[in-house]
Amino acid sequence: MNEIHFYNRRAKLLDLMEEGIAILTSAPIQTRSNDTEFPYRQNSDFYYLCGFNEDNAVLVLIKTPNASKTILFVEAHNAEHALWNGARLGIDGARERFSVDEIRDVAEYAKDVKELLREHINLYIDLYSDSARLNEAKSAAQSLHSTRGAKRHIRSILDVTYLIRSLRLIKTSEEIDAIRRAVTITAEAHHEAMRVCKSGMREYQLQAAMSYVFLNNGASAEAYGAIVAGGNNANTLHYIDNRDELRDGNLVLIDAACEWELYASDITRTFPINGKFSEGQREVYNAVLDVQLKVIDAIKPGVKRDWLQTYSEELLSDALIALGVLNGEREALMEAKEHKKYAPHGIGHWMGLDVHDPCPYVDETGESLAFEVGMVMTIEPGLYFRADDESVPKRYRGIGIRIEDNILVTENGYENLSSMIAKSVEEIEAVCNQL
Ligand code: GLY
Ligand code: MN
Ligand code: MN
């Protein structure tokens, strides 16, 4: 993404801020075990504002009545670190690359932050982070507070993440391009899984086939831990074991997707392991698909997200009645939350720099937000019938189905960003049986 985008985002955040200072810190490196580490993943709010992808960095935004200033603290080049872990961008490299007003050495941060906090009364931070660099800032604020004769000191500590995440809610065309890129690779991976799947394989072998496509196309990472759930495993919503055998006659639910330049995709498809839906599987599949298509079709600017959730629950309840799983009037069944047993999760979530983008769902009064052009949401209805659930007609037991697409809100309604992925029974069977 071009520097100008990060510059514009900082300008928008400064607009939303009262006079004061905002401090954002990069994600720490996470230990996996002993002295091995997880691949580095930057903090999304920090990345959103500056695009810097190294650890041990701090971004400071200052707003005064007449001016604003941004400073990025980064680690200086270090030959020892470069030998073992690769070269950092360093002070000069960062100066060349980034459009912030100043680049400083992070080794100076603890000293500088005390100076920077002077004269301000509002401090914006991630209130819920325990980052060491933020704690240094709080200590500096505390010591200024007890300094006799100080003209001003921090009187309010405010949550900067709420402001940033309100901005993250509306995606720019560059962000949508990154999501499209992630979705395009993910589409190929799902089709590859459908093509290579055979009875007797293991779930992890489908995961491996998809990971190959992700890596081979330059995706930065999986956007979340892949779920490859054969048969009844699909009824464990967060099944990530992926070690079971894929058995003839069962379905496999795959919820797996990649990230492109830190932007997520999030796709689920459910298909028959042997390439042909049974009658019972087809009935449940088409019931879920019908709900998904109707919910997607209801998306347009102005529609409230809460309304969409209720609408999806009504449709899922109708589907459960039509399948003979629930008996009675829809209203009474919904009142008793009967559908929740078979459709326990929400209809979808915001998606962007995080797969579950932590953007607000309600406004400041607690009212559900209405869709606006540029929002991206997943739509992912599912029905889950456990193998041992005797309340369900026998032919449906052991079936778990979710269908998930990534939807962009547009002026005229919506665009399904993942519409290229096989979804109808006929499309899926065709890809499953491609040589
Ligand atoms: N893959 C996580 C989700 O669908 O929310
Ligand atoms: Mn998903
Ligand atoms: Mn999802």
SSE order and pairing:
Layout lengths: L2 H14 L3 E6 L5 E3 L2 E2 L6 H7 L7 E6 L4 E7 L4 H7 L4 H8 L4 E4 L3 H9 L4 E4 L6 H14 L10 E4 H9 L4 H24 L6 H14 L4 E2 L4 E4 L20 E5 L2 E3 L2 E2 L3 E5 L6 H19 L7 H18 L7 H6 L40 E4 L2 E3 L15 E3 L2 E6 L2 E4 L8 H8 L3
Helix pairs in contact: 5-6, 8-9, 10-11
Bound molecules: glycine and manganese (II) ion (2 copies).
Outline the structure in words.
Helices cover 36% and strands 18% of the residues. It is an alpha+beta fold. It folds into two domains: 3-167, Creatine Amidinohydrolase, Chain A, domain 1; 173-432, Creatine Amidinohydrolase. Strand 12 and strand 13 (263-264) form a beta hairpin. Helix 5 (109-117) crosses helix 6 and helix 8 (173-196) crosses helix 9 (203-216). Bound molecules: glycine (GLY) and manganese (II) ion (2 copies).
